[in-house]
Task: inverse folding
């Protein structure tokens, strides 16, 4: 047993200088959340459901045949910052090169050095399963002309170093906009950044300073705790954000998390969620009774949750303009992220089998308009639409 | 031929309470650990959905979470003159199955055996003289109270036990159990909120001069974060606890306290649906070299390890030792041999009361929710004029008001039809009960061995239980029933009845899953299977952890003591065994 421990220690600490460079590159992989899309072992094969069809993420291990083992450092830089793979093949912006283009070359090089040390996995991936005509890669040339203006991140004068670091992380490697910024017809960012967007059956919430839909009622520490542990007094990460927390933010340094919080707290408020429900007294009455029966055991009759279960009072996720996430949670359930600092990862049971569309709508309208929450009512029709989307697997 | 696998530092059989605790402690010490679990993976979010966990038919009646006799049955008889027959269905006790083991479906009663229990033979001899022991094979366990107390504390903080201290470092505390042995600090959580029946019981017991206290519960009286950082929710008193898994993260189990941390450890590996067939010894029989197991496809593997830790249910630990020839089979004719010795159970009796004008609201229930008196527990009362030793806790706990099994009626009520329906309607709000859970002390004739006739699906002999309630325990239980008779009087119930234990243990009706002994710990290798650190005397790289190590059973639920022994054994391994592998006790 001792021999085992000694061997492990030797592997870790031999050639410390080189290891430090690799560590720097590994941290870039954390900031860029490479594993979020390319999988734990980076061998890809993860399906991304886009409005244009299915994209399957490629293998980015250094396997020569099926991975990126034949790339040069420059090939890798071009892919990361220009969206061009060797041979002039144009990448789809599901690979967030418009964000990675803000990264300095030194960080790209460190990341490349790290990726070369990852265990090669032989795994061919059929990446492009998009519908016609989106499956034609040359079309991305036009997209790039219209929507891609690569530029390294430049500090904003008059803002603190932390703010600038946060702005860089959020808009650069962290590519938060990929999920949280509304998209236009072509899948490019449109309108106000980070004001919330639908994706893969979830709604990535508003991150601006709006008090109801955004993070206006969160402190900077709330944001740091959420990103670092997956939970805080107001909310808990599940769905795609659970993966982002697990693979990326929970492994970020405290100073980087703090920088992100400083930047997000400075975002101007969005136009909000359209305001609270009115004229729905019957829905609120029915919702309250259904909530007490089905939800209060964990979330509390006061909606405050506990150290384990998320609060619903003050939870921005329940107050988004679109109901995708909350309806999905009630109908299909979900599991929260588990991190070293909050290892439990509680589950939300699926209640779709016992709640009708109108019952789910009543509960959610009640939750969205009680304990200080204020958001538009949810109709039985909306629940029905999301239920059928869940059934069809889209 | 079994496929040979790469060696691990530690191989654990079974991932219930003890396997999880050993796994956590040994991986924290840097060891490479694999756990082999016969049953399936189970987790709260995926398997204990709060939306359907309250299915009494599926879980309580059809016993969905329990071990099926098709996987492993046992045979039973009352004495050696009989031929044992296999139990075709588990009834008297219900072993768990799968990850979490019985820790998934237990009630959460989390008691500490007393200092008295760990040195029971010395204590009784000192207080009453050796003649008081009569034919009982009582013996000291080994660890002193000072040695074992910190490990009770660890388990209680892991579980977030809700309770009130009765003896803090020797100072008796109001509202707690004045008879308990000294504890180093208060329980991690305050007591549960009491239902009416338990409150009424406490009021009447106080009136009789007894000392009621809230029974220590691993149901959460409030949300809790344990020392590993694992979080639990507050109990909702839903009344679906025993025989069920908790969908609310409110009952301590390996899943809700240890596994979220353990499963993340890179030096821990779990293989589910992998049944250990035997522990393989070196040719001289002095060391374990590997275990052979079979996966769900029937493929056999040999897993070598430096250390083997048996963490199955107590009865299964004993059987694994017998199948692997670790130690010598106990023989009741000669009282020689150690494996199978000192098998004990539990000795209980109950009181039922029926009123006309109460509203007990029995649907407000939880696994370990109630008030207890320990005035007749262990040696907390004077036995000098009594013809027995031992005793019982008396508890009024409210577990459920479930529609299938909770239909209290007065004696003489028809068993079906309109009159039965009317009676159950009246009885539902008007019935309460309390009962004694008594000690079970070892005698020469009660033991475990391998059945000569019946085999399991792998062709291995089943475990045979030879057990009947010893005269000492029957006398104890009858004395307790006499006390119950006195206790029901001040309630002025319309009807009351007190049960009396009969000889002839029947394995069909449910009684208790508190089977203990068979691989007991002790100070003498001729009368114990494992030393005071739960290390096999015969094969020192095998540790056997669980209620199998109890040298007798007290009048308390065993899990608190099982948890303490798991931490105690883990501490011996990490602080002593790793530094110097080999026997930790020399005689």
Result:
């Amino acid at each position: 047993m001792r021999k085992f421990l000694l061997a492990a220690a030797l592997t870790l600490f031999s050639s410390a200088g080189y290891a430090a460079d690799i560590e720097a590159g590994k941290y870039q992989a954390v900031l860029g959340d490479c594993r979020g899309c390319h999988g734990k072992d980076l061998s890809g094969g993860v399906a991304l459901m886009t409005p244009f069809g299915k994209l399957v993420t490629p293998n980015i291990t250094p396997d020569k045949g099926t991975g990126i083992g034949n790339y040069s450092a420059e090939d890798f830089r071009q892919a990361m910052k220009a969206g061009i793979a060797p041979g002039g093949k144009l990448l789809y912006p599901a690979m967030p090169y418009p964000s990675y283009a803000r990264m300095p070359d030194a960080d790209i090089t460190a990341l490349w050095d790290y990726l070369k040390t990852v265990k090669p996995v032989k795994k061919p991936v059929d990446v492009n399963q998009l519908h016609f005509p989106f499956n034609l890669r040359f079309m991305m040339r036009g997209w790039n002309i219209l929507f891609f203006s690569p530029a390294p991140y430049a500090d904003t004068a008059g803002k603190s170093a932390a703010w600038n670091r946060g702005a860089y992380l959020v808009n650069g490697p962290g590519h938060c906009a990929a999920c949280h910024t509304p998209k236009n017809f072509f899948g490019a960012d449109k309108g106000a950044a980070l004001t919330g967007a639908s994706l893969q059956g979830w709604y990535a919430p508003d991150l601006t300073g709006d008090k109801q839909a955004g993070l206006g009622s969160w402190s900077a520490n709330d944001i740091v705790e959420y990103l670092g542990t997956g939970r805080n007094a107001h909310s808990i990460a599940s769905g795609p954000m659970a993966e982002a927390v697990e693979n990326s933010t929970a492994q970020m340094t405290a100073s980087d998390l703090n920088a992100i919080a400083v930047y997000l707290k400075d975002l101007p408020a969005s136009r909000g969620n359209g305001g609270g429900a009115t004229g729905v007294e019957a829905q609120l009455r029915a919702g309250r009774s259904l909530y007490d029966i089905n939800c209060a055991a964990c979330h509390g009759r006061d909606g405050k949750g506990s150290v384990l279960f998320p609060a619903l009072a003050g939870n921005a996720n329940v107050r988004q303009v679109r109901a995708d996430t909350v309806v999905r949670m009630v109908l299909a359930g979900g599991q929260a992220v588990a991190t070293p600092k909050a290892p439990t990862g509680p589950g939300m049971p699926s209640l779709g089998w016992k709640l009708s569309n109108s019952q789910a709508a009543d509960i959610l309208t009640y939750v969205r308009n009680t304990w200080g929450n204020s958001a538009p009512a949810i109709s039985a029709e909306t629940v029905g639409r999301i239920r059928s989307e869940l059934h069809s697997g889209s | 031929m079994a496929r040979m696998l790469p060696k691990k530092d530690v191989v654990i059989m079974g991932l219930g309470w003890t396997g999880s605790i050993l796994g956590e402690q040994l991986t924290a010490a840097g060891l490479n650990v694999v756990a082999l679990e016969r049953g399936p993976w189970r987790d709260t979010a995926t398997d204990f959905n709060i939306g359907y966990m309250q299915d009494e038919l599926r879980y309580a009646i059809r016993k969905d979470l329990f071990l099926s006799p098709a996987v492993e049955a046992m045979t039973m008889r009352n004495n050696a003159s009989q031929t044992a027959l296999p139990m075709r269905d588990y009834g008297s006790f219900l072993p768990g199955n799968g990850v979490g083991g019985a820790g998934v479906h237990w009630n959460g009663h989390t008691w500490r055996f007393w200092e008295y229990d760990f040195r029971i033979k010395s204590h009784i001899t000192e207080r009453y003289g050796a003649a008081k022991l009569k034919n009982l094979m009582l013996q000291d366990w080994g660890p002193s109270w000072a040695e074992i107390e910190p490990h009770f504390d660890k388990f209680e903080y892991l579980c977030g036990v809700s309770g009130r201290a009765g003896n803090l470092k020797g100072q008796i505390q109001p509202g707690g159990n004045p008879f308990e042995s000294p504890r180093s600090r208060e329980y991690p959580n305050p007591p549960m909120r009491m239902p009416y029946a338990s409150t009424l019981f406490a009021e009447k017991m106080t009136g009789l001069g007894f000392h009621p206290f809230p029974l220590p519960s691993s149901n959460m009286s409030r949300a809790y974060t344990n020392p590993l950082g694992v979080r639990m929710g507050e109990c909702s008193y839903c009344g679906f606890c025993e025989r069920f898994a908790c969908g609310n993260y409110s009952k301590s189990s390996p899943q809700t306290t240890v596994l979220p941390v353990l499963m993340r450890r890179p030096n821990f590996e779990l293989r589910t649906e992998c049944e250990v067939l035997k522990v393989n010894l070196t040719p001289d029989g002095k060391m374990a070299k590997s275990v052979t197991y079979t996966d769900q496809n029937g493929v056999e593997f040999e897993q070598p390890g430096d250390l083997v830790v048996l963490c199955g249910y107590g009865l299964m630990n004993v059987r694994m030792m017998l199948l692997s020839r670790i130690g010598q089979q106990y023989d009741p004719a000669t009282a020689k041999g150690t494996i199978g010795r000192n098998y004990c159970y539990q000795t209980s009796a109950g009181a039922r009361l029926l009123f006309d004008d109460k509203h007990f609201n029995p649907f407000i229930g939880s696994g370990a929710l109630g008030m207890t008196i320990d005035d007749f527990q262990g040696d907390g009362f004077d036995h000098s004029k009594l013809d027995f030793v031992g005793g019982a806790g008396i508890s009024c706990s409210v577990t459920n008001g479930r529609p299938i099994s909770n239909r209290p009626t007065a004696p003489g009520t028809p068993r079906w039809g309109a009159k039965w329906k009317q009676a159950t309607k009246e009885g539902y709000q008007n019935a309460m009960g309390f009962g004694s859970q008594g000690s079970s002390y070892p005698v020469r004739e009660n033991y475990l061995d391998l059945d000569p006739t019946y085999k399991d699906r792998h062709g291995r002999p089943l475990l045979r239980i030879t057990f009947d309630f010893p005269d000492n325990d029957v006398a104890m239980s009858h004395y307790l029933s006499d006390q119950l008779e006195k206790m029901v009087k001040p309630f002025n119930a319309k009807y009351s009845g007190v049960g009396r234990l009969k000889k002839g243990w029947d394995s069909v009706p449910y009684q208790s899953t508190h089977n203990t002994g068979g691989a007991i710990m002790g100070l003498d290798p001729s009368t114990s299977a494992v030393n005071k650190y739960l290390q096999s005397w015969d094969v020192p790289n095998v540790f056997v952890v669980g209620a199998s190590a109890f040298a007798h059973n007290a009048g308390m639920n065993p899990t608190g003591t099982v948890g303490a022994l798991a931490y105690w054994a883990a501490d011996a391994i990490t602080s002593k065994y790793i530094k110097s592998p080999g026997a930790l006790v020399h005689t």
Summary: The mean pLDDT of chain B is 97. The longest helix of chain B spans residues 559-577. Chain B has 14 helices and 24 strands. Chain B touches chain A through 31 residues (CB under 8 Å).
